[in-house]
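Box 4.2: Ligand-aware structure prediction
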Amino acid sequence: MAFRIRKRLSDICVAHRLPGHEGKCKFLHGHNYFIYITLEADELNEMGFVVDFKDVKKFQEVVDVWDHSLLLWEKDPFSHFFPKSLYSLSDTSPHVIEFASILQKIFLVPFIPTVENMSQHLYEKAVGFFSKFEKVRVVSVEMYETSDASCEYTYTPIFEEGKE
Ligand SMILES: [Zn+2]
């Protein structure tokens, strides 16, 4: 038996494109993603919580890195329009400084930015983020790309100890 809690984080607005997609998803477009994080523990802490929801909410700061950003697969030919490093911009004119500021929200990621890969990435971040809470497991991160389409990335439960 275990206690499971689930928290919806504040929405984030992310642009992406899916290279090679045969439909409209190859074009730059965006979604207002909403994200649920689910945590569990076999026993409650001394306050009677799995994790206080106010502490769960702090994971928002990790998710917010992507808010108002553009995610591009690092192998996407389109990503070649953007320098990999801000240090390659030696010009200090105002429009270059403005461009550098915008580049801070263009992330070249090692995966095609589908909701599946994005939820896996956030799940792995969540495992690190909540590791300070002993005996608490991150069950899943579920990301909704639209109100009726989502991906839940979750661990594979071990039903019997000692067996696969
Ligand atoms: Zn999309």
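In the box above, the bound molecule is zinc ion. Residues 3-154 form a domain with the Tetrahydropterin Synthase; Chain A fold (CATH 3.30.479.10).
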